[in-house]
Amino acid sequence: MSETNTREIGIIMNGVSGRMGYRQHLVRSILAIREQGGIELPDGSRVTVKPILVGRSAQKLAELAAKHGIEDWTTDLDAALADPQWEIYADFLVTKARASAIRKAIAAGKAIYTEKPTAESVEEALELARLARTAGVKTGVVHDKLYLPGLQKLKRLIDSGFFGRILSVRGEFGYWVFEGDWQPAQRPSWNYRTEDGGGIISDMFPHWNYVMENLFGEVKSVYAQAAVHIADRWDENGEPYTATAEDAAYGIFELEGGIVAEINSSWTVRVNRDELVEFQVDGTHGSAVVGLFGAKIQHRNATPKPVWNPDLADAHDYDADWAEVPVNDVFLNGFRQQWEEYLASYVLGTDYAFDLLAGARGVQLAEAGLQSSAEGRKVALPALSLD
Ligand SMILES: NC(=O)C1=CN([C@@H]2O[C@H](COP(=O)(O)OP(=O)(O)OC[C@H]3O[C@@H](n4cnc5c(N)ncnc54)[C@H](OP(=O)(O)O)[C@@H]3O)[C@@H](O)[C@H]2O)C=CC1
Ligand SMILES: O=C1CO[C@H](CO)[C@@H](O)[C@@H]1O
């Protein structure tokens, strides 16, 4: 392949000093794509990427640039946006800082690729989607959970008709996040402050929305109970603070087609399952339990017939009734896989489903979840549109 046949796309990467921006987007995605010589398009040509690192700390950016041999970095977002060599604006900032930066990037005519949630309210999320449509710029929103090996195996099971009619989905997500006093917390403290854009509902419900709508059906309503189980936490500097944002949410979702999904999200649960997230899907013909990587199934022909008897200890080994689903595929890092698809769609000008409107639906579910919890009632989700 000749060099001249490779198009280089400049990407403004804002928030690379953060956990997601650095690890998943810069190192595991953009630098990995660059190192492999870009991606190949159907016509045999190649597209590669060139990042400019953006943030508010010159020292952090200079260190990252030096560590990875990256030529360009700046603390001046406006200057980067004004420079036509950078075609895509990618945002991994704290949630609170996102919408204003994306607004500027759209005004500068850049294509957008962003972490979730896309904004702090549905109104703002829709506003961004509308601005992008009017400006005619392509948009993409991270849908990483769909690319997890376990969820890809689940998709394969669904597509094969394994479940028959899907009845219900039970999700358990979570792990113990330390309070920060006697062991440092393993998540940033802003996650536990509503005033700083935190809360497990705004963090996880956008994920649950695209997982449900892409695998099972659109979410029609939500009933959620949020809880601040642990109010006393200690921040990155060891200073005590009061957690104002929920650290757990217990949600019931009605999906199109009558499927009922129930998903618990918690940073205050000790793990007693195989993986940090697990979904059990029950259908008329079979059931599956999938996690980040694993997936196991039980067909109706292999389903035992338990009879409840409180007088007798049950010796049946229920775990043994499940069969492991084989990998049968090579699963790339999900963030990188989605970046590759987005870049191909950007260059080819094809429709991209995981756009700012899809992101707005995720924000809608989070907002409705918070409303449901505050009002103690089920909240319906009207279809969103840009018109
Ligand atoms: N898809 C997924 O699985 C996940 C997605 N996320 C999402 O990614 C985003 C970032 O989360 P995470 O990486 O955990 O957060 P971090 O706190 O690790 O990183 C936040 C980034 O935002 C920058 N920043 C912080 N405050 C401001 C501000 N006021 N103005 C401008 N920049 C600011 C930080 O810069 P500095 O270094 O200078 O402080 C840093 O680069 C969130 O929106 C979150 O919802 C998070 C986790 C997983
Ligand atoms: O968005 C997210 C998805 O899953 C991750 C695992 O806890 C979280 O870190 C996160 O904030």
TrEMBL record:
Pfam families: GFO_IDH_MocA, GFO_IDH_MocA_C3. It is an enzyme of class 1 (oxidoreductase). InterPro entries: Gfo/Idh/MocA-like_OxRdtase_N (IPR000683), GFO_IDH_MocA-like_dom (IPR055170), NAD(P)-bd_dom_sf (IPR036291). Its EC number is 1.1.1.292. Keywords: NAD, Oxidoreductase. The keyword NAD applies. This is 1,5-anhydro-D-fructose reductase.
